[in-house]
């Protein structure tokens, strides 16, 4: 037996060495290949295929940076000379590169582009991208987008003739998302669908897991009796299950019993019955450690510490909190680490160790703020990607409508040609065919009228669809705005709240554009005076200082591509004026005017009678995000920014912009 093991070990390492030599050979050939050539394209795609699946070193370090140059060359060549399949193969390697470097925002942007264009080299690639995109959406909290992708992910899996892993199920995945959103009733509905979907497959352990989740959903709603019914049902199913046969770890059965018993015991915590929970937690802690389930082990010890804290047995509480801390890997399980530090701070305070308690609390606060800032930044970047995706989807729908209209015109022209040809042929034939011809003409006219009515009806339906798209985009932006508002309320850091409020105002400015488009007949142009009035009212509602705002804007409409940056510029100027312009003043006036300078060129002027701009404004502007944003948006509108102090008091901002961006490109 020992000889066989040695042989297998040698064979395994020989294969790894052979693969390593092959990769080195391809890398060498790539380094010597011609840039943007077919040879480099083929070598790049081959290298990408050789590197899958990823090994642990790649996950730690990421692909070498020179790989990205090869990928870029491959994309350039395939876009110029290759097929759609060849382009998709190069993009798959680009996806792998972003994942290896954990550049998640870039991965999400490229994955959405590939899904929109249905650009995949193989069905396996499509499943891979859907799987990872689902994971990243769930991790980032974009659960609605996650739910939308789940059915297609499982359809692809079915097309590949593959069975899901033991713990995977379409309905169970959707239920978990609703559970994470605290929509417990909807979560239960999908958990029950999951049970029905495996009813004939005799999978008692999987059903036990689902029943446990249903029990947890009732527990979160403080329906202890219903929760206990499902927990006990889960225990019965575990007792008759064969975990190995269902694809789980052999010793997972006993551990899961401990988990369920703990859930039952926790129902009694409200009655100050701690002993059952303590015993269950200690059992779960041991079985979790045996299985290598580190996060469950940490949670169990954190909870033990919390219970001993409630019992005022502070030394035991401190023992278990330290035990949990020792198991937390560096820079991992940050949520568990935060709860661990928070509880330790309380325990130390209860032990009259105020100085140590404050140190732990400050450490927890710093970690929490850091996570919140990173999460907000990533969430904003993903929201921007999804906004662009929705915008692109809308453009695709418009292109389809134009193509349909073009096809209808071609069809109509062909019918007219046939009509004239038949007319001439009929005249050259016998006169007695005239009656038949006229009759046929009448029938054809009736058909054309019917088709015209059908086309008109179709156009009306498409217009309704476009309005609905604007309405949904507006709703999605308001959801993001609400999320920012809630995030701001949970933070004690005023700078974080300020960032959240600014982001919320910017998103509201964009949402109003789509609200205006939804309400008007014209789906591309905005009445700038009405939009400005709405934007001013919205910003005024969020400020304590009430200024007299005068608006002098002509009755004219602008394209949505102009209105969006205009709204963001005005939002920044008004927000800054309210926040900084009237410090120490009880009242003030803001004037907003738009003047036409020449054809397609306008001047926006926003001025106030506040305290004016600081003397070092030019130096400050280099470090100020708001002013940088205004300048960037003005450049986007083919204009520039000018600002100055007025006499005797106040300041003014003047922004020139064009209403015809296409001709100015």
TrEMBL record:
Record's keyword terms, sorted: ATP-binding, Coiled coil, Kinase, Membrane, Nucleotide-binding, Phosphoprotein, Signal, Transferase, Transmembrane, Transmembrane helix
Membrane-traversing stretches: 418-438
Superkingdom as given in the UniProt entry: Bacteria
Catalytic activity: ATP + protein L-histidine = ADP + protein N-phospho-L-histidine
GO MF entries: ATP binding
Top EC class, one word: transferase
Record keyword Disulfide bond present: no
Gene3D superfamilies (alphabetical): Histidine kinase-like ATPase, C-terminal domain, PAS domain, Tetratricopeptide repeat domain
Coiled coil region boundaries: 257-284
Domain Histidine kinase: 468-661
EC number: 2.7.13.3
InterPro entries for the chain: HATPase_C_sf, HATPase_dom, His_kinase_dom, Sig_transdc_His_kin_sub2_dim/P, TPR-like_helical_dom_sf, TPR_rpt
Signal peptide: 1-18
Name assigned to this protein: histidine kinase
Organism: Psychroserpens ponticola
């Amino acid at each position: 037996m020992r000889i066989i093991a040695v042989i297998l070990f040698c064979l395994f390492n020989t294969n790894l060495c052979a693969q390593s030599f092959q990769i080195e050979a391809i890398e060498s050939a790539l380094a010597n290949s011609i840039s943007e050539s077919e040879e480099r394209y083929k070598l790049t795609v081959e290298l990408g295929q050789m590197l899958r699946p990823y090994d642990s070193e790649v996950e730690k370090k990421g692909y070498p940076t020179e790989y990205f140059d090869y990928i870029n060359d491959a994309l350039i060549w395939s876009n110029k000379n290759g097929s759609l399949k060849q382009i998709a193969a190069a993009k798959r390697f680009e996806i792998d590169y972003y994942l290896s470097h954990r550049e998640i925002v870039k991965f999400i942007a490229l994955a959405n582009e590939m899904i929109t264009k249905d650009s995949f080299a193989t069905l396996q690639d499509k499943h891979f991208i859907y799987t990872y995109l689902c994971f990243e959406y769930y991790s980032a909290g974009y659960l609605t987008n996650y739910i939308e992708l789940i059915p297609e992910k499982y359809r692809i899996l079915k097309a590949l003739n593959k069975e899901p892993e033991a713990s995977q199920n379409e309905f169970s995945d959707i239920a978990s998302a609703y559970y994470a959103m605290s929509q417990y009733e909807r979560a239960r509905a999908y958990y029950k669908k999951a049970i029905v979907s495996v009813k004939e497959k005799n999978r008692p352990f999987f059903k036990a897991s689902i029943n446990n989740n249903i029990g947890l959903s009732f527990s979160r709603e403080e329906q202890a009796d219903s929760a206990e019914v499902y927990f006990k049902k889960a225990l019965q199913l575990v007792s008759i299950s064969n975990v190995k046969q269902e694809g789980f770890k052999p010793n997972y059965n006993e551990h899961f019993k401990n988990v369920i018993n703990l859930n039952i015991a926790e129902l009694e915590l409200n009655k100050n019955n701690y002993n059952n929970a303590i015993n269950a937690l200690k059992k779960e802690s041991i079985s979790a450690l045996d299985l290598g389930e580190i996060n469950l082990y940490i949670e169990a010890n954190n909870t033990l510490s919390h219970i001993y804290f409630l019992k005022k047995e502070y030394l035991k509480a401190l023992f278990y909190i330290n035990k949990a801390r020792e198991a937390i890997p560096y820079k991992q399980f940050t949520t568990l680490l935060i709860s661990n530090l928070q509880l330790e701070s309380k325990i130390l305070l209860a032990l009259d160790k105020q100085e140590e308690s404050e140190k732990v609390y400050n450490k927890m606060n710093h970690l929490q703020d850091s996570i919140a800032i990173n999460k907000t930044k990533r969430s904003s970047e993903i929201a921007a990607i999804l906004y662009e995706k929705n915008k692109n989807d809308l453009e695709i729908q418009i292109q389809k409508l134009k193509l349909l209209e073009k096809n209808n015109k071609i069809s109509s022209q062909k019918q007219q040609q046939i009509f004239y040809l038949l007319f001439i042929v009929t005249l050259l034939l016998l006169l007695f065919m005239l009656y038949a011809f006229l009759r046929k003409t009448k029938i054809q006219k009736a058909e054309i009228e019917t088709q015209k009515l059908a086309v008109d009806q179709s156009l009306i339906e498409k217009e309704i669809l476009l309005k609905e798209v604007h309405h949904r985009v507006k709703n999605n932006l308001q959801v993001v705005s609400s999320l920012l508002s809630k995030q701001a309320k949970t933070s004690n850091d005023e700078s974080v709240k300020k960032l959240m409020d600014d982001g919320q105002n910017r998103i509201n400015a964009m949402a109003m554009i789509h609200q205006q488009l939804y309400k008007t007949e014209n789906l591309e142009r905005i009445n700038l005076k009405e939009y400005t009035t709405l934007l001013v009212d919205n910003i005024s509602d969020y400020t304590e200082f009430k200024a007299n705002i005068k608006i002098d804007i002509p009755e004219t409409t602008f394209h949505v591509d102009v209105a969006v940056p205009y709204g963001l510029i005005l939002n920044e100027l008004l927000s800054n004026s309210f926040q900084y312009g009237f410090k120490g003043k009880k009242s003030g006036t803001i004037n907003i005017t738009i003047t036409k300078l020449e054809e397609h060129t306008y001047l926006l002027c926003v001025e106030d009678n506040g305290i004016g701009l600081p003397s070092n404004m030019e130096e400050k502007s280099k470090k100020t995000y708001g002013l940088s944003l205004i300048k960037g948006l003005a450049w986007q509108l083919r204009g520039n920014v000018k600002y100055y102090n007025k006499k005797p008091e106040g300041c003014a901002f003047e922004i020139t912009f064009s209403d015809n961006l296409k001709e100015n490109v």
